[in-house]
Amino acid sequence: MTVAKLLPAIGHIPAFELATALPEDVDVLVVPVFTGEDGLELPTDSLTADVAEPLLAALELVGATGAHGELTRVPAPQAIEAASVLAVGLGDSDETTADQVRQACGTAARALTGVEHAATTVGVFGLAESIEGFGLGGYSYRGLKSDEVPANKQPLGKLTVVGGDDAQADFDRAVATVSAVALARDLVNTPSSHLYPARFAEVAASVADASGLSTEVLRDDELAESGYGGLTAVGGGSARGPRLVRMHYRGKPDSDAVDVALVGKGITFDTGGISLKPPAHMENMISDMGGAASIIASMQLVAALQLPLNVTATIPMAENMPSATSYRPGDVITQYGGKTCEVLNTDAEGRLVLADAIVRACEDNPSYLIDTATLTGAQIVALGNRTSGVMGTDEFRDQVAEAGQAVGEDAWAVPIPAELAEGLKTPVADIRNVSNDRAGGMMVAAAYLREFVGDDVQWAHVDIAGPSYNTSKPWGYTPAKASGVPVRTIAKVLTDLAEQ
Ligand code: BES
Ligand code: MN
Ligand code: ZN
């Protein structure tokens, strides 16, 4: 079955078209504008003088300055074949960054609600950045509302990008990136009533099928039998049993070695379990599978980009519920591979399902392992809502954090201080799942995971508790709710590794 049939709803993204000339029937032409020394400036590389002069006059008349983020919509001057022009401010043209272009295009996409067909001429905007910005910002998820959307509230229908003859490869890459991020968002936005472990596993298998990847799914009974004690304990409180999904991409036909292992936390809902969470905002815990969603989406993207790497994803899926069959504080569980863990808080469930998955992933002897998870509220305390925390082996951790910064998914490298790891010692098991101290909760969780990573594996753990889910207003190309972070970071790391 297709993903669209397995989910109750999927988000809308604009259709994209690459053209060599401006089509005749566009509603809105989108043009970047700058703050120059003498005021408003238009790009000189993509507009001819007969077009630029009347447009500049019209924009100046209504007070456009070109400041970053400023949007100005005017009726199109006669020389332009469009109904109106949307000028998107980018600030000083010498200082504009790729992500500012994406953010501005994202804001522009949201301002084009009710517009069927917009076009933009690539030049200063950059082809990939404009498609990513319009695609990510133009994403809209309506969920399960039964009424029709009126035409004036419909999200932007189509964007034509006018680019050179050599633009096709960049165009395809950017569109594949937008589709992958949209998939991650759709999965996260789907409510837990409709996305539970068994269904989530079906979705992953369906994505894999469509991308030509192979999959294996381990069911609850098989997990218990094979010793996946973390996943079995965490999933045991729910009537909807846990799953472990493995997806395989072979980009190097001559080699069986796994270059990169990907692992993502797939808690389809996190109540906290017996260590029950307070009720306020618990509904946001539909997003506790954001790590898993981004890994599934990254696998789709790796396949679309046909990167010359072998990549295997290992994705634990469970619902953390309080019930008569739940695991309890004080229980000792056995993680996959044999390490025992004293559970002191059933709400620190992510590390338990990840530990099983990491051990399984390391059985393949990967060179690199990236895990990503909505792991700790402490990530938000430490770095805020928009910056992921990256921990792991020094060099690869830094590489992943830099990749995040390069693509506009802000990320920061964080150490795992030795004294925090000390806090996980217990007299009754090999390790405990939380420390007594509230200090450095994000790094304590990473210290737990580190115990399960193979010795020769270069490892990065990306805590996305804040950045993967926007509980506030839309901004730039980030809509409310699911953001799709860190799909583009992972794609950048894999692309860089493939080129090394
Ligand atoms: N899924 C949560 C972390 C989370 C919090 C994600 C807020 C997104 C937003 C995780 O399972 C959790 O409950 N962590 C606990 C750990 C604690 C018990 C050591 C936390 O952060 O409170
Ligand atoms: Mn939890
Ligand atoms: Zn959780």
What do you see in this structure?
The chain has 500 residues and is of the alpha/beta class. It is 34% helix and 22% strand. It contains 15 helices and 21 strands. It has helices at residues 3-6, 49-61, 98-111, 127-137, 168-189, 197-211, 220-226, 229-235, 290-305, 350-362, 377-383, 394-407, 418-422, 441-450, 487-499, and strands at 15-19, 26-36, 39-41, 71-75, 82-89, 117-121, 158-162, 214-218, 243-250, 260-264, 266-270, 310-320, 332-334, 340-342, 368-373, 388-392, 411-413, 431-432, 458-463, 469-470, 481-482. The strands form four sheets. Strands 8, 9, 10, 11, 12, 15, 16, 17 and 19 form a nine-stranded mixed β-sheet that branches. Strands 1, 2, 3, 4, 5, 6 and 7 form a seven-stranded mixed β-sheet that branches. Helix 9 (290-305) crosses helix 15 (487-499). The model has no long low-confidence stretch (mean pLDDT 96). The structure holds ligand BES, manganese (II) ion and zinc ion.
End-to-end distance, in Å?
37 Å
Number of strands: 21
The total count of helices amounts to 15
Global Rg: 24 Å
Q: How would a crystallographer describe the biggest sheet? A: 9 strands, mixed
